[in-house]
């Protein structure tokens, strides 16, 4: 499952590290406790919009840029998750091809052929 708070935390951490700043510097500038900012960056706490705004201001990065990066990361995570589901279903694909089609309307009919009759007679004895 993809957690938005983890993606947001990853983006905030990358933004901070790109600037070569420490958690202590950003937490002080944003007026957020160091421990709380650390938990937000690790995806353990949900950041409120007010907190996110304070962190973005401290990083001098527009919130729209942070959210765009989160959106891009989310799209990539969804693709990766989708690919994982498809690869897990791959062994089943040959079976799916063997399923006969179902009629799509009332005018279509399905013909079911009975198995061929046995070539040898079989005696059935009642007990």
UniProtKB/TrEMBL annotation:
InterPro entries: Cro/C1-type_HTH, Lambda_DNA-bd_dom_sf
HTH cro/C1-type domain ranges (all copies): 12-66
PROSITE patterns: HTH_CROC1
GO function term, MF aspect, one: DNA binding
The name this protein goes by in its record: Helix-turn-helix domain-containing protein
């Amino acid at each position: 499952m993809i957690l938005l708070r983890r993606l947001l935390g990853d983006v905030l951490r990358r933004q901070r590290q790109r600037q070569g700043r420490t958690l202590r510097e950003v937490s002080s500038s944003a007026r957020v406790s160091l421990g709380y900012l650390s938990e937000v960056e690790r995806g353990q706490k949900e950041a409120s919009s007010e907190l996110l705004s304070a962190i973005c201001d401290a990083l001098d990065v527009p919130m729209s840029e942070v959210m765009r990066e989160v959106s891009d990361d989310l799209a990539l995570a969804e693709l990766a998750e989708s690919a994982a589901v498809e690869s897990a279903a791959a062994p089943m694909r040959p079976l799916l091809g063997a399923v006969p089609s179902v009629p799509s309307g009332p005018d279509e009919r399905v013909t079911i052929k009975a198995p061929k009759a046995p070539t040898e007679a079989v005696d059935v004895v009642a007990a």
